[in-house]
Design a protein that fits this description.
alpha+beta, three-stranded antiparallel beta sheet, 2 helices, about 40% helix, about 30% strand, globular
Amino acid sequence: MNEQETEELQKTGVWTCAKCSVELVPGNKIFSYMGTTFSHEVLRCPVCGMVFISKQLADGKMAEVERSLEDK
């Protein structure tokens, strides 16, 4: 998680899993897109493994990776 994401989380409070009702914790997640894998630290449920992708991450880093892979 970068500083801005951490600050955003602190402003909004604690995130909990909608399915398990437990607090999400930071953890490394491996993503795959068009045959390429990359990892990023995101909030995830320690029980079921569901991850939280912030709008900032989806519109920023993930969109950037998608564009670069699609341009190849």
